Automatic annotation (TrEMBL):
Gene Ontology MF terms in the entry: ATP binding; DNA ligase (ATP) activity
Name of the protein this chain belongs to: ATP-dependent DNA ligase family profile domain-containing protein
Biological source species: Fictibacillus enclensis
Family statement drawn from the similarity comment of this UniProt entry: Belongs to the ATP-dependent DNA ligase family.
GO biological process: DNA recombination; DNA repair
InterPro entries: ATP-dep_DNA_ligase, DNA_ligase_ATP-dep_cent
Any Pfam family the entry gives: DNA_ligase_A_M
Amino acid sequence: MTFVSPMLLGKIDAPFDDSQYIAELKLDGFRLVYSSLGAKPRLYTRHNTHVTSRYPELTALDLPPGIVLDGELVVCDADGKPDFEACMSRFSSRKSKQAVTYCVFDVLYSDNQSVMHLPLVERKALLDAIIPVNSPTLTKVGVIDGLHARQLYDVCCAQSLEGVVLKRKDSAYLTGKRSDTWLKIVNYTFTDVWVAGLTANGDWLLEFDDGTPAGICEFAPPLARKTVYRNFEGRGEPIKVRVKHRSLTKGGYLRIPSFLHFL
């Protein structure tokens, strides 16, 4: 076995301070599992897509055999902040020269033995031994005590970063499962926009107040979708709504907008 399905995050709306937790930045890239259980290192996305050949710099890392690591692959901008679009550009094109950083936050196997049953703090200690020194290509995700989680989240918001993750210090690694022992708090932005029309499959075409396109909303509850559909079925006027989203794309569109309520 080389692939391990990653543990998933529960979700809450606001951070809390608690000494039974650690707090980490939620990085804006994509989940990557590194495995050297076989003859050669292999890389997998969270959905078990084999991407080893896309990142030769990661297979050349000075890491021991018999380990499985979990982390986030990011591409950073000139300010050192994760750039999701650049990360996806590197993923999509083998010709891309974007430098990647593998930010590791957990170890699942060590010396060919599963350590997923161990408390998180013990796995973190193993990770410190596996990656004793951070580098531009391979680094450990920074950790602070959960007593300061809200302060970290405030910094995250001030710097327009993606969010924070809270993890119980005694948590086991639950492969492929979503758990309330790992919780994410996303730094959402809230924007009022117009639903100006529908796509062929019923998603919402959004516009800003000045009429410029704001993107497509795919996430709305059934009742709201039915209300909007009936409006445009009767050739109604645009409907103003409030959405939450993860910042703007470089093209000026809302990133992953999700309906909150009508205005």
